[in-house]
Amino acid sequence: MKVFVTGATGAIGRHVVPALIRHGHTVTALARTPEKAAALSAQGARAVAVSLFERSALAEAFAGHDAVANLATAIPPTSRFMSAKAWRKNDRVRTEGSAAVVDAALASGVAGLVQESVSMLYGDGGADWIDEDAPVDPYPLARSNLTAEANARRFTEAGGTAVVLRFGLFYGPGAAHSDQMFAQARRHVGLVVGPPDGYLSSIHLADAASAVVSALRAPAGTFNVVDDEPLTKREHARALERAAGSAMWLRVPGRAAALFGERLTSLSRSLRVSNARFRAATGWAPRYPSAREGWMATAATLRTGTARTSV
Ligand SMILES: NC(=O)c1ccc[n+]([C@@H]2O[C@H](COP(=O)([O-])OP(=O)(O)OC[C@H]3O[C@@H](n4cnc5c(N)ncnc54)[C@H](OP(=O)(O)O)[C@@H]3O)[C@@H](O)[C@H]2O)c1
Fold it and tell me: How confident is the model at residue 228, as a pLDDT?
């Protein structure tokens, strides 16, 4: 297939481009600078400089492609998570950006769309398993994702095949937030957001990338892409501790996360999310069934500095 990728230079994008090429697809990717264009060409993709918000230019760039993978995001660094202003760029990318991508893809006759979303949309489920029929919770940080999902459904209603992937919390080489978590763990500090017996559904970037490849042959719909075995936040901290090889003296903010309200709710709620539907629909399976295995592999990569992006 000829696939156009937005967000190709980001945490998941840097794993997705080589994964698509390894599976025989031809990749065109949006690049915002000459340096990023060169990096994409080095990975074997054709780089195109086009705005994510300009429908006519996007339609021109999408012409002749079989599918678009819309993976662009602008999540603030953890240090700025609490500032509402810091989320504005991301909200624009996920709302106006996804609308422009859908309109341009429809205008240029592209058949397929893969839209990035997150599984942190679900309400706190405690220890219950959560599948795609569970209700979503439209808290402020979730709304731009819900808009991107609605735009993707509009693509399907207009005759295309849109696949929405609700990813768990990214971790792995190149995920800025997980690199920070690993560095903190090496300094004996563990990030545990919310009650320690609550669940955290994560996904290693290599598995997230293989899911994007699998999504190209999925039926239209919304699918959870998470580890097979979500861990409790206590178990997750232990997995990180073991991978970092240093005892965790401090686990923060724990239950105190509730004090930060809406700003941290995407991470403080308990989410035991099931990937069964995506597995059944595509035959996809994560290489790392849980963060126990995934963090050990990530630690090995971060230590040797050999980021593996192939899947
Ligand atoms: N499910 C999850 O847990 C999840 C989801 C997303 C991100 N994250 C985490 O958040 C960290 C930072 O995230 P991030 O959102 O900045 O993602 P990122 O992983 O750094 O990549 C974002 C991608 O979107 C592109 N992009 C951003 N704004 C754009 C715009 N206005 N027009 C066109 N393309 C645009 C970026 O292009 P440029 O390279 O040109 O900037 C880049 O390719 C990541 O490292 C990851 O760890 C987690």
Answer: 98
* Ligand 1 atom having least distance to the Cα of 119: 1
Residue 267: count of CB within 10 angstroms of its CB: 22
Taking each helix axis from N to C end, the angle separating 98-107 and 143-157, rounded to the nearest 10 degrees, works out to: 10
Looking at the DSSP assignment, which residues form a beta bridge with residue 122? 136
Q: 74 alpha carbon to ligand 1 midpoint, in Å? A: 5
Buried-exposed string 79-98: b where 16+ CB fall within 10 A, e elsewhere: eebeeeeebeebbebbbebb
Residue 309 resides in a domain: no
pLDDT digits (tens, 9 = 90+) for 226-283: 999 999 999 999 999 999 999 998 888 877 787 777 878 899 999 999 999 999 999 9
**Which tokens hold the place of 300?**
């090995």
Instruction: Work out the pLDDT band at 306, boundaries 50, 70, 90.
Output: low
* Residue-level length of the chain: 311
- pLDDT attached to residue 311: 40
Percent of the chain at pLDDT > 70 equals 98
User: From the CA of 118, how far away is ligand 1's center (Å)?
Assistant: 13
- Do the domain assignments include residue 311? no
pLDDT in tens, 137-189: 999 999 999 999 999 999 999 999 999 999 999 999 999 888 889 999 999 99
| CATH number of the domain within which 250 lies | 3.40.50.720
- The domain of 209 spans 2-304
Can you tell me the distance from the alpha carbon of 12 to that of 72, in angstroms, rounded to the nearest whole number? Answer: 9
Report whether 143 contacts 136 (CB < 8 A). no
Please give all residues whose beta carbon lies within 6 A of any atom in ligand 1, as ranges: 6-11, 13, 30, 32, 36, 52, 72-75, 93, 118, 167, 169-170, 175-177
- Of the candidates 79, 96, 99, 70, the one whose C-alpha atom is nearest the C-alpha of residue 10 is 70
Residue 62 lies in a domain: yes
Total domains in the fold of the chain: 1
Alpha carbons 99 and 153: distance in angstroms, whole number: 11
